[in-house]
Design goal:
123 residues; 7 strands; 20% helix
Length: 123
């Protein structure tokens, strides 16, 4: 194969290798968020004002974002003894979502001193 053809073939293969996965699909975009937050110290059941060494963030997400997260979490999670057996609850690690009177709500928490996620719901 002449060098010029090989060069063109190589350029074409490199170009194909750089096509993003799912090309032709609409890419997700950031959207407005409906919800609340709380920065606190201690635990959720006994919280107090945050301190330099004890600061956590609770995010409560509502509306369309919560519905989307709920759907992405997959099937309902096996119920624990602290929940109404008829309740619909989905959680994975430190993210929890459930339908409520206004639609859906989800919670996620972070320990701001470590940057790690933490449980965001209590019974």
């Amino acid at each position: 194969m002449p060098k010029s053809r090989f060069f063109l073939l190589a350029i074409g293969l490199v170009g194909i290798a750089h096509i993003p996965a799912g090309q032709g699909q609409e890419l997700p975009e950031a959207a407005p968020l409906d919800g609340e937050y709380m920065v606190y110290g201690g635990g959720l059941g006994d919280h107090y004002s945050p301190t330099v060494g004890d600061s956590k963030l609770l995010l409560i997400i509502r509306g369309e974002a919560a519905r989307e997260i709920f759907e992405q979490l997959g099937p309902e999670t096996e119920q624990s003894v602290c929940y109404d057996p008829d309740a619909i609850l989905r959680w994975r690690e430190d993210v929890a979502c459930q339908p409520d009177a206004e639609g859906y709500s989800c919670t996620v928490g972070f320990d701001l001193t470590t940057g790690k996620s933490i449980h965001s719901w209590i019974c």
